[in-house]
Amino acid sequence: MTAPTKYLLDESQLPRAWYNIQADLPQPAPAVLHPGTLQPIGPDDLAPLFPLELIKQEVSTEREIEIPEPVRDIYRLWRPAPLYRAHRLERALGTPAKIFYKYEGVSPAGSHKPNTAIPQAFYNQQAGVKRLTTETGAGQWGTSLAFAGSLFDLEVLVFQVRVSYEQKPYRRAVMETYGARCVASPSAETVYGRSVLAQRPDHPGSLGIAISEAVELAVQREDTKYALGSVLNHVLLHQTVIGLEAMQQLQMADAWPDVVVGCTGGGSNFAGLAFPFMGDALRGGRKARIVAVEPAACPSLTRGRYAYDFGDTGHLTPLTKMHTLGSTFTPPGFHAGGLRYHGMAPLVSHCKELGLLEAVAYTQGECFAAGVAFARAEGIVPAPEANHAVKGAIEEALRCKREGRSETILFGLCGHGHFDMASYQKYFAGELKDEAYDEQELALALAGLPSVPGTGV
Predict the structure, then answer these.
(1) Cα–Cα distance, 146 to 157 (Å, whole number)
(2) For strand 319-324 and strand 305-310, is the pairing parallel, antiparallel, or unpaired?
(3) What keywords were assigned to this record (predicted)?
(4) Is residue 263 a part of any domain in this protein?
């Protein structure tokens, strides 16, 4: 009898609590600083942007934080998500490795993003909030928050990075179907957006700019808060349902990963898969190699500096210590729009500094080639972002082939590419070029990092 292809959990096995890696880290992450005073921020500093419950989660060091039942009830629309054994990909590669992937494309929005959009909408509704502002790159996060807003009767305004807004009109259509309003960023709707357009009317946009626009509007009205789809501690926390489920499913398969691979832009889907395994190892369990895969055109982990920086281009946010390319850095318009952020999540960055993970970068061409090979073997067309994890997993499997090692590889397939077929069309037509970032712009952006006395940066 052949080994099963998919491992499914019953709804009763849905995790009851999120996992907080801050409870197990050997050293606490550096404090978040107020940009004016350079002192650690407090709850009052975050109150204009987030409801109190999310602020508590942001700073919590408790290992487990209970998932509210209304959130679990909505999670049941697609969770627990399946774990697959990639038998056909293994055969296509001729590798002795066992390859598993956790598939998040089964959510209504087609990605992992609703894992945090739902609780963020829930906590905001509980706090009496009526409107949420946010940013989105490829559109996965904007779609997910629009979906969550429709369930909790919240108005949602999404600033989408202009290059993605133009590349992916169907994402915008889905957001509008859920009732959200989607605006190309930089826009004329904010003071900061207008200032960017005044300097460069054809600006392609960036996540940093879109964040500035969303934050600017959020602080202007008492009934409005800001929601972020990655980077922040509470966002990574919510995503750990991915890894917690995967642990149960791998036990069903009588397997445990030697390598865990995830794509990284802001860090949420990577952390969601990897942090539960990392935490298990920190508590004395079996250690796995943790590999973060990022785009060569926006390589914050492999080329960025570990320093205090703003989370947005307009410098409206607090200072966080992270691997950054500089808040003014604008990456080229490559097609993995969700991986175009200038910085990496502070917790992911901190874990890299502690030696708990390693990072690699690949060009979009080789990632699309990996995604096509995966689709032809396994049948699922990955999102351009997820192609980076596919590429990383294939490289690990080929290493096992060269070394004759039968290792177990787990990677996160964070979403499907059904809204990204224009990118695949360009790839097949030979029009999808590998975009290189401007070295001079990177140098200028890094030279402009804030000076924070006593931190070495």
Answers:
(1) 8
(2) antiparallel
(3) Amino-acid biosynthesis, Aromatic amino acid biosynthesis, Lyase, Pyridoxal phosphate, Tryptophan biosynthesis
(4) yes
